[in-house]
Write a structure and sequence with these properties.
295 residues; alpha+beta; Double-stranded beta-helix; three-stranded antiparallel β-sheet; 8 helices; 25% strand
């Protein structure tokens, strides 16, 4: 079957696409992977329906797009982890598969997924693609919203673009979780989450378009007082998450969604947290720190 991609929404025909013509469980060819990469360069978000897969099949599919990340961004790095370190556990379940208690520290930490963010922007070399598989979803809510940061850049006033152009921001989960009042960290967690520098403006390699690089993890701008930096980042986030730049994905069981973290932000929306929401994410790393990439 030939790969086919069509826009999901005529309102945003160049942002989210619906991809058909492959079975992730059966594996894909190099030509398939190249066609998907081309589709990602155009849309930045691709949705695949009816992909009933295992973690190993998801990981093998993801490897076609670059070096793989380990799941080091959450709090659970112990031997009792529910999933392997190859897969990020985007769920409200503990190691026994039970919905976490409301005061579970891991659950409080995971609320950061409801802030607009870019995956792994807190790592020296951030992520390229995220691939998220819906294994069990709540009856309602729990959507994932995506913001098009290339379109948001294009819509900025020229004087604001000029102001953004050479700025370097510090990213850390200490910043994003601090927005929620999550401030009780171990010494090891603080050491692991030291801020890393990232460009505020990036040139997206696949499309050659400029893009903002925003995230809840961004909490400081080099050379600016903290209040000045925070208000500027807040204004940019408010601009980039306006309705005209956002696609909201309503999950169906066995959906697989791929997005480009170099050109998007995303967030989960509210749902009944007593219901199971179980999604598994594999993450493809970018090829270099943003400061080493040409703008």
């Amino acid at each position: 079957m030939t790969i086919y991609i069509k826009p999901i929404s005529l309102e945003r025909p160049d942002f989210a696409g619906l991809l058909s013509g492959i079975s992730v469980a059966n594996g894909i060819s190099k030509d398939d992977a190249a066609a998907i990469e081309d589709g990602m360069n155009h849309f930045a978000v691709l949705v695949l329906r009816d992909q009933q897969i295992t973690d190993d099949q998801q990981y093998a599919f993801s490897e076609h797009f670059g070096p793989m990340e380990q799941a080091t961004g959450d709090l659970d790095k112990s031997g009792t982890r529910r999933l392997s370190m190859k897969v990020n556990d985007i769920s409200n379940l503990d190691e026994d598969g039970t919905v976490m208690a409301i005061d579970d520290r891991r659950r409080q930490f995971s609320l950061g997924n409801r802030l607009w963010h870019s995956d792994s922007s807190f790592k020296q070399t951030p992520s390229k693609f995220s691939i998220l598989s819906a294994r069990d979803i709540p009856a309602s809510g729990g959507n994932t919203q995506f913001a098009d940061l290339r379109a948001a850049w294009d819509a900025l006033a020229p004087e604001i673009q000029k102001e953004c152009m050479d700025k370097i921001c510090d990213h850390s989960q200490l910043y994003s979780r601090g927005l929620l009042g999550f401030t009780e960290w171990t010494e090891a967690e603080v050491a692991f989450n030291q801020p890393v520098p990232q460009r505020l403006v990036r040139r997206h390699a696949g499309s050659d378009r400029l893009s903002l690089y925003l995230s809840a993890h961004a909490g400081a701008i080099h050379g600016q007082p903290m209040p000045e930096a925070r208000i500027f980042l807040r204004e940019l986030n408010e601009h980039a998450t306006q309705h005209q730049f956002v696609y909201s994905h309503e999950w169906q069981a066995s959906d697989l969604v791929i997005w480009d973290n170099r050109a998007t932000m995303h967030r989960a929306t509210r749902y009944d947290s007593e219901q199971v929401r179980d999604l598994h994410r594999t993450t493809v790393s970018d090829n270099a720190p943003t400061l080493q990439q040409p703008v």
